[in-house]
Every structure is written in structure tokens, then in C-alpha cells.
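Retry 2 of 3 after timeout on previous attempt. Resubmitting C-alpha cells to design endpoint.
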């Protein structure tokens, strides 16, 4: 571990008690920090997460935030869901207390080179594949970050000769200071997270922080086919490597090949990994077929572009189940691909009225109160040869804890359809 004494005897507040908050609190406590954890929610999930804290000496506050717990701290560490406008962050800034993200805390302690991946879509797939090509080349990779496995949860296992492949969101990048990846990868840029960022420029500025601290000993990998990203090369001090979609190579694979070339990994190794890759759970995942109707779990699709890709890659007629918490995106973006192919759109969640206004009159649109009702309705409307696609285009936080829970619930409902 690098800088193992950095947090020793420091008073640290960890804001948010989800996975990254728990891992960060436990790690810093073990390194000798005085740790206080606060979460404004007090429910079964936060209490269950609180039970994962390794010591009763880690101070805990649930159901509220109090100023007194923040103003005497040396550092405040925020989880991805915590915004700059949240009360603890405001208090910290008023008291000139540094506010950093969990990935910044991990970076301070990480002894290994970091490959950081961001983009509006495709991050999880590319992060996973980069980890796989590194391992296939005989080296060890730790795949973590926004992919679901917190960076600080892996720190004690990482050695200097390893690699860390880190999926990073704009939320996480907002809270960096010295974070400096050896290789940063920007996959694409499209309308997203406007429920958090005031406009597209603020969203792009957050994404650009991935190369903020890089220098000419580092690499920036950019998508040449993205009209926004290809203009960023002149804004970075890092060596720029561009990738582009080619025949037989999709954009995600092209990005992985670019990283592989920097690391000296033979393209034949990459091709073998691509061929053997079975895909990710909740990302265009085949669930089952019932009476010649296919069910596809695409719960990971939280942006329009991911749903467009899914519709495009289904040869059959589609019944689409979508909706959730709105992220400020333009749902009409699916229309060119969906017209003539999507038989019905069944909407759930907080965003259903907004999505309905974007699609109604061009596609057949109906609503359901629950995901269970939506699945059953879709099955009744289906014919042999159809595909029922669950691809929400929204985040999950209105009805579910995360996209993984949402996908698991979908699969459970579908599998129950086969029971008498």
C-alpha cells in the first residue's frame, strides 16, 4: 500500500453508507483514522450496511446529517450519490474542509498503475474486458470502481506490479484532486445525468477531469468517431491514442484494443478474449424463452443510446419495457430505430409521463404500476417470435436500490411466468 500513514490520526467523515461508503470507512479505520459515517436515510438497507462496519468505534449517524459531526473533521469523503449541494458538503466548504470522492481516497493509497474508464455508455463492458486482456497476458488486474466493486475495498490486496482497471462516473470525478490514471479512456459523450448536472457543458467538464492531472508520461484514449471527444486531444498533456469502430470491431472492442496496444498486449490475445466473452449480467442478457417469446434483461441500460443498441441487435419484433428515474435525457432518440420494430412500449416509474410524451403518436405506448404488471402485460401482448426487452433508459432509484436489484427482480418475474 502507498501512503499508508496518510489518514492516520485524521478525523474523517464518510458521507453515504452504500457499498463504497462501507468499504472506505472500514479501510480508513484500519489505517488509524477517526471515522464518522453519516447517511440521511435510515431504513433496512442502511441499517444492514451499518452492520458491515468492522468496529463499534466507527461513529455512525443515520436518518439525518448534523453540522457538529462535519465541522471538526479533517477530510470529508463523499459517495457518488452525494451532490455538491448536499448539506454535509456545504458545511465542509464553509469550514474549509477538503471534500474528496472515494476514488480519490483509493488513489492516495494505491501502489499500482490505474486505467480509468469513463463515458456515457459502455463503461462496464470496456472496464471488464480490459481486466480480462490484462489477466490473459499473464498479469493481475483489479476491476473496480463504479462497476460495483469499490476501489477502497480492494486496496489492501493490490501490489505495485498489478493493474487497477477503474470504471469512473462523472459523479466520482467531481470529487478528485490528485487522481492521476496512467491511462484514461473516454468512450463516448451523449446527453445524460442532467438531473445532476445543470447542462451538457457541466457534464462534459466533469468527464474531462479524468485527464486533469495527467502529464506526458500518461495516455489519453479517445473515441475518434465521437465529434465531442475527438476535439479534446489538444486539452490534455497526456499522449493521445484514438480508436475507431471498424468492420468486425465494435467501439467497445476498439477501445480495449487501444489500451492493449499501450500495454503491449498482442491483439491475438484480445481477439481470443472477445470471442470467449459471454457478456455481463443485466446488459443485454438473455433470460429465457417461453412459448417462442424471448426475454432479455437490459437493466444496465440507463441511457437512450444503450436501448437503441439493444433494439438494433434484436432481429425480432420487440415489446419494450422502460422507465425509472429520469436523468434528463431525450427519449425520442429511440424513435428512428424503434419505428416499425417496437410493437408496444410499456412504461413504469417516475419518468413514464415524460417518456410517453416523447413517444406517443409514433409508437404504441401503455403504462403499468409495477414491473410485475409490466412483464405480465408484455407477455399477454406478445406473439411467438417476439422479444420482450427490459431496457429502462433511466436510473433505478425510484423503485429499486440499483440496476442490479432491478434486473434480478425482472428475471425472477420472468422465471415465475413458467410456473403453473
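Retry 2 succeeded. Sequence:
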Amino acid at each position: 500500500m502507498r501512503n499508508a500513514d496518510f489518514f492516520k490520526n485524521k478525523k474523517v467523515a464518510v458521507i453515504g453508507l452504500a457499498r463504497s461508503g462501507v468499504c472506505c470507512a472500514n479501510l480508513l479505520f484500519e489505517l488509524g483514522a477517526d471515522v464518522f459515517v453519516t447517511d440521511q436515510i435510515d431504513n433496512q438497507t442502511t441499517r444492514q450496511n451499518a452492520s458491515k462496519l468492522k468496529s463499534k468505534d466507527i461513529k455512525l449517524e443515520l436518518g439525518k446529517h448534523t453540522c457538529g459531526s462535519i465541522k471538526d473533521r479533517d477530510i470529508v469523503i463523499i459517495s457518488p450519490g452525494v451532490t455538491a449541494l448536499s448539506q454535509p458538503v456545504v458545511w465542509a466548504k464553509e469550514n474549509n474542509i477538503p471534500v474528496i470522492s472515494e476514488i480519490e481516497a483509493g488513489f492516495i493509497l494505491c501502489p499500482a498503475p490505474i486505467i480509468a474508464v469513463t463515458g456515457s455508455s459502455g463503461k462496464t463492458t470496456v472496464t471488464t474486458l480490459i481486466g480480462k486482456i490484462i489477466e490473459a497476458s499473464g498479469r493481475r488486474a483489479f476491476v473496480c470502481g463504479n462497476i460495483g466493486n469499490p476501489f477502497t475495498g480492494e486496496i489492501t490486496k493490490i501490489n505495485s506490479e498489478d493493474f487497477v482497471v477503474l470504471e469512473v462516473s462523472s459523479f466520482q470525478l467531481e470529487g478528485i484532486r490528485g487522481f492521476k490514471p496512467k491511462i484514461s479512456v473516454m468512450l463516448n459523450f451523449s446527453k445524460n445525468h442532467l438531473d445532476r448536472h445543470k447542462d451538457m457543458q457541466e457534464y462534459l467538464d466533469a468527464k474531462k477531469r479524468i485527464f486533469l492531472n495527467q502529464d506526458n508520461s500518461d495516455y489519453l484514449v479517445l473515441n475518434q468517431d465521437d465529434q465531442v471527444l475527438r476535439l479534446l486531444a489538444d486539452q490534455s498533456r497526456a499522449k493521445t491514442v484514438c480508436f475507431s469502430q471498424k468492420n468486425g470491431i465494435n467501439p467497445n472492442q476498439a477501445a480495449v484494443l487501444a489500451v492493449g496496444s499501450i500495454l503491449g498486449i498482442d491483439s491475438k490475445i484480445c481477439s481470443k478474449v472477445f470471442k470467449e466473452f459471454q457478456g455481463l449480467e443485466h446488459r443485454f442478457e438473455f433470460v429465457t424463452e417461453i412459448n417462442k417469446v424471448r426475454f432479455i434483461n437490459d437493466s444496465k441500460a440507463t441511457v437512450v443510446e444503450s436501448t437503441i443498441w439493444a433494439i438494433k441487435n434484436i432481429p425480432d419484433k420487440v415489446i419494450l419495457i422502460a422507465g425509472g428515474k429520469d436523468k434528463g435525457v431525450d427519449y425520442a432518440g429511440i424513435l428512428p430505430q424503434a419505428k416499425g420494430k417496437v410493437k408496444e412500449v410499456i412504461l413504469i416509474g417516475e419518468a413514464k409521463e415524460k417518456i410517453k410524451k416523447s413517444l406517443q403518436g409514433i409508437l404504441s405506448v401503455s403504462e403499468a404500476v409495477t414491473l410485475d404488471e409490466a412483464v405480465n402485460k408484455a407477455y399477454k401482448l406478445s406473439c411467438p417470435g417476439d422479444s420482450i426487452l427490459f431496457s429502462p433508459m433511466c436510473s433505478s432509484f425510484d423503485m429499486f436500490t440499483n440496476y442490479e436489484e432491478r434486473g434480478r427482480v425482472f428475471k425472477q418475474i420472468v422465471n415465475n411466468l413458467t410456473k403453473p
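Attempt log closed. The radius of gyration is 22 Å.
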